[in-house]
Amino acid sequence: MGETLTQQQVTALIEEHLPLVSHVVFQVAVNFPRHVEREELARAGALGLVEAAKRFDESRGVPFNRFAAQRIRGAIIDAVRAADWAPRSVRALARSLDQAELDLANRLGRAPSVAETATELGISRAELDRLRDRMFRSVVLAFDSLLGSSDDEELTLVDVLTDRSSVEPSEELEARELRAYLRDAVHLLPERHRIVVVGYFIEERTSTELAAFMGVTESRVSQMRSEALAMLKDGIEAQYSDDESVATGLIARRKAQYASSISSASGCGDRIAFVAEDVDLILA
């Protein structure tokens, strides 16, 4: 074993390699949820650096920065594990779920539905719901945790949580109006496009099932879904636009006609009175 470093040498090592802590934190932070504060990781990493400086043995031939990086990384991981209430089994399941959703998104070109995710994992929807519940309950957030990086406006979690019991009247009216526009917009879609939207997003049927039901290819179903979403987006946005220009061209006239049909499908009073919150009721 080599000679023990003096306290002065240990202090010098720590001061010289403090930037290494920030470097390691930057590397490992992407592996942790957003609620894990980077300052906490940095504090744990600094303790790891101190421990590395005390234990460093130059005679082993390992550069201090490499030795310290391992100690810093280990200290950070230990600190996160100590603060994590989720058992290892839940963390493993959470990683499997994330990977399954990522694989599905890459294959499908969109976010997978709950049913598709459950099938990919080989479990039922009820089991997937229970898994998500266990994952969410394992995440513990402090209400006084600071959000954002601005020094001018220090917001905590409790400052930004929405109080569903005291919604502003104007927000409630806007939400009712938007849901009513959505209901009318879906009803006014061409029949086959409406079947795709309802079947895909409400009934959670797959593209394969819809293609077989409609007697078309899966690529055609995907095309109709994209067309329907574009129509819904343009039609609803037109209700909040002040553009009064006359549409020219066949496509532009069709868009304008669709938007006009949405506008006249319900009166203002009917839209304001529309209180359905469940999307199934919106499309009923």
Automatic annotation (TrEMBL):
<dbReference type="Pfam" id="PF04545">
    <property type="entry name" value="Sigma70_r4"/>
</dbReference>
<dbReference type="InterPro" id="IPR013325">
    <property type="entry name" value="RNA_pol_sigma_r2"/>
</dbReference>
<feature type="domain" description="RNA polymerase sigma-70 region 4">
    <location>
        <begin position="188"/>
        <end position="233"/>
    </location>
</feature>
<dbReference type="GO" id="GO:0003899">
    <property type="term" value="F:DNA-directed RNA polymerase activity"/>
</dbReference>
<dbReference type="InterPro" id="IPR007630">
    <property type="entry name" value="RNA_pol_sigma70_r4"/>
</dbReference>
<dbReference type="GO" id="GO:0003677">
    <property type="term" value="F:DNA binding"/>
</dbReference>
<keyword id="KW-0805">Transcription regulation</keyword>
<dbReference type="GO" id="GO:0006352">
    <property type="term" value="P:DNA-templated transcription initiation"/>
</dbReference>
<dbReference type="InterPro" id="IPR012845">
    <property type="entry name" value="RNA_pol_sigma_FliA_WhiG"/>
</dbReference>
<dbReference type="InterPro" id="IPR007627">
    <property type="entry name" value="RNA_pol_sigma70_r2"/>
</dbReference>
<keyword id="KW-0238">DNA-binding</keyword>
<dbReference type="InterPro" id="IPR000943">
    <property type="entry name" value="RNA_pol_sigma70"/>
</dbReference>
<keyword id="KW-0731">Sigma factor</keyword>
<protein>
    <submittedName>
        <fullName>Unannotated protein</fullName>
    </submittedName>
</protein>
<dbReference type="InterPro" id="IPR014284">
    <property type="entry name" value="RNA_pol_sigma-70_dom"/>
</dbReference>
<dbReference type="Pfam" id="PF04542">
    <property type="entry name" value="Sigma70_r2"/>
</dbReference>
<feature type="domain" description="RNA polymerase sigma-70 region 2">
    <location>
        <begin position="13"/>
        <end position="85"/>
    </location>
</feature>
<dbReference type="GO" id="GO:0016987">
    <property type="term" value="F:sigma factor activity"/>
</dbReference>
<keyword id="KW-0804">Transcription</keyword>
<dbReference type="InterPro" id="IPR013324">
    <property type="entry name" value="RNA_pol_sigma_r3/r4-like"/>
</dbReference>
